Amino acid sequence: MKHTLTILIIMLASSLHAAEFYVAPTGNDANPGTRKQPFASLEKARDAIRALKPKGPVAVRLLPGEYNVTKTFELTAADSGTAEAPVVYRADKPGTAVLYGGKRLRGFTRAADVAGGKAFQCDLRQQGVDDLAPLQERGYGKAPPPATLELFFNGKPLTLARWPNSGFVNGGKIIEPGSKKEGKPSVFEYLDDRHARWTKADDAWLFGYFAHGWADRTLKITHIDPATKRVAGGPYELLARSMEPVKWFNKGKIKYFAFNLLEELDQPGEWYLDRKTGILYFYPPSDPARATVEIGMLTAPMLSMANVSHVRIEGLVFDLSRSSGMLIRDSERCLIAGCTLKRFAGMGIKMTGGRENGIFGCDIYSIGRRATEVIGGDRRTLTPAKHFVENCWMHSFGRLDHTYVPAVQLEGCGNRVAHNLFGDCPSSVVRIEGNDHVLEYNRVYRAILESEDQGAMELFGNPTYRGIVFRYNYFSDIGPQDHMEGPAGRAGIRLDDAISGMLVYGNIFHRAAQGFGGVNINGGRDNIFENNLFAECEKGITGGYNAKNKHWERLGKDPAFIMSELYLKRYPELKRLGTEPGLNFARRNIFWKCGPMFTTYGKPSANKFELADNIEDATDNLSFADTSRFAGIGFRPIPLDKIGLYQHEHRASWPVDMRAVFAKQPKRWEDSTQP
Questions:
Q1: What pLDDT, on the 0 to 100 scale, is given for residue 486?
Q2: In a domain, 398, yes or no
Q3: Domain boundary residue among 249, 278, 295?
Q4: How many CB atoms lie within 10 A of CB 180?
Q5: Rounded average pLDDT over 284-298
Q6: Residue 576 lies in domain
Q7: Residues 344, 229 share a domain
Q8: Which long-range contacts (CB under 8 A, 24 or more apart) does 20-24 make?
Q9: CA separation (Å) from 665 to 59, 371, 482?
Q10: Which of 479, 536, 520, 503 has its CA nearest to residue 668?
Q11: Model confidence over 484-540: pLDDT tens digits?
């Protein structure tokens, strides 16, 4: 197994250093920075390197303990290393140095009038917490709030008091769609008298899918009228789209739940903060006197790297913040290796611009939004960035915003996502934009547990995204266990709205289709599906070319480089885009105990495909690792033993029993995140 760029960068860190500095929670910045007399801060170690101007490799070793983080640790071009003299910030013992952006709460007393006397309370302001981070509109189409306060109990996130306690309820007739321009609130009928309990709540919110099953949004309640059974909030213009029945999304219905309601604090694991008084109420899962109760405090990224080269961050734990973990911008050959990032209300790692940066062997989980963004490379010149995400375990992301918040938002040109383990998330695991990316050897499990009309890996809406390879990925259990609430679908891979020119080779789709097939094509052409195994899927491959898809119009609006000599040479099928038929190609695929192999939303689609040597198999047993009985059609073995994580000294952790990870079967997204 070759991991060329990854291994090359990992080997750059020599055990022999021109200088070493030590940092410890009990250190002092007046010390010389030795093991016996360490610094107290990373800033002091950084400044010592700047003053030293080393000629060889430099290491900053963080001794075990917890480091309280109150501001961003910033690295700039002045803190760069070189290929011969990299700069490494590492835990002296991996996983034992914790950069902590939270606060532990104490002084709990019984809240006699809440939850039948089973709730507790404390005064945050008396504990020095003055910034109570008011709730703000969030979700699809909204910029995320700069900071979000959350409550954790023994390391797990608690739930803002809500109704119903799980799942959603449907709304009734829409009375007024709302308009921000005109200052009109959104108004709809509610169907359950429970809403009448909230007429005096002054900071109650709704979370839901008010227009489409792929568009989550929050809506602040402004008025409840029990006489007419109407609730007003917003305004939220997208609600107007639900005024007419929509076949594909939620059967034309609003679905939502109400949250941030003291009146609904009624089960263990729920909490509520009165932002006027500063009193926090919570219903603990167990005795709070014997537990660790925390909130995030830091409102900025823990680490910022801008215009930096040849710097490594290794073996550290980044824990608990109202914001994001790391921002890496316009940097070169920097590596985040063997780190753990957890309990961030924002993003885990955002990497933009630059080239040949990597995220390797990290665990990233319990993240409010996207686990990572990896953006780099030049589409105009098809110059690859060669960023990579490899051997990482990312799960339980999209905790606060539920759609378009994948493990990896991959954009630009020429980046690689390989050998990762992705799962337990409300929507997709990888969203892709751009050209010439490679996604290979990834294990995907329990994805799209809430939203719909999506793929675990997906592209959308731009037929000039080309040259992307999906190779040897394993998808299983896509969609919630109790199936779906609307007729829109979920797929292992979705090529949405005219996506074309993709190669899907050697992948496994196991229980990876709901409504859609294991693979879904919405209007695109020139996609190749070869040597894939579809097992126990509702459908195999669905969709096909559609010349009327509105996203083909984009070709006339894109910049001239799309039809440049460079593009036409790299992607010769662009020359045929206006011709018929617009075919996709399916060769040597196996369909075991699936529904129909090829359909266009329920209709025969032979005219949409060029088919060759596909086999429908209904025997009792099939070993994914042994497909030798299909060798006669040229089916090549899928390297199952190489898919997913692999052991490495720079892996942050290693799941003791992967079978236990996959055996957990939450019915819905919220079940996967509850304490």
A1: 55
A2: yes
A3: 295
A4: 12
A5: 97
A6: 299-642
A7: no
A8: 20/58, 20/59, 20/60, 20/61, 21/45, 21/48, 21/49, 21/58, 21/59, 21/60, 21/61, 22/60, 22/61, 22/62, 22/63, 22/92, 23/60, 23/61, 23/62, 23/63, 23/67, 24/62, 24/63, 24/65
A9: 43, 22, 11
A10: 479
A11: 555 579 999 999 999 999 999 999 999 999 999 999 999 999 999 999 999 999 999
Say how many residues make up the chain. 675
Whether 148 and 258 map to the same domain: the answer is: no
**Contact criterion met (CB below 8 Å) for 188 and 231:** yes
Decide: 87 and 311 in contact? Cβ < 8 Å.
Answer: yes
Give the Cβ contact number of residue 592 at 10 Å.
21
Q: What's the DSSP call for residue 183?
A: T
- Spatial distance between the Cα atoms of 416 and 418, rounded to a whole number of angstroms: 6
- Identify which of 602, 468, 478, 472 has the alpha carbon closest to the alpha carbon of residue 542: 602
Residues 375 and 513 in one domain: yes
Distance CA 15, CA 179 (A): 62
Say if residues 49 and 61 touch (Cβ distance below 8 Å): no
Give yes or no: residues 469 and 613 share one domain: yes
Coil, helix or strand at residue 237: helix
Question: Is the separation of the CB atoms in 646 and 419 below 8 Å?
Answer: yes
Q: Which residue has the higher pLDDT, 129 or 655?
A: 129
Q: Domain tally for the chain?
A: 3
State how far the Cα of 29 lies from the Cα of 37, in Å rounded to an integer.
9
Place of tokens 């003291």: 262
pTM: 0.95
Please give the structure tokens belonging to residue 482.
């109790």
Query: Do 287 and 422 sit in the same domain of this protein?
Result: no
The CA distance from 497 to 551, in Å, is: 6
pLDDT in tens, 555-575: 767 666 777 899 999 999 988
Both 253 and 285 in one domain: the answer is no
What DSSP string describes 247-301? SSSGGG--EEEEES-GGG--STTEEEEETTTTEEEEE-SS-GGGS-EEEE---S-
CATH at residue 187: 2.40.30
Tokens of 535: 């097992």
Task: Please provide the DSSP assignment of 480-508 as one string.
Answer: -TT--SSS--EEEEEEESS--S-EEES-E
- Compute the C-alpha angle 117/119/121, nearest 5°: 120
Q: In sequence order, what DSSP letters do the residues of 113-154 get, joined into one string?
A: TSGGGTEEEEETGGGT----------BTTSPPPS----EEET
Q: Which tokens hold the place of 214?
A: 């792929």
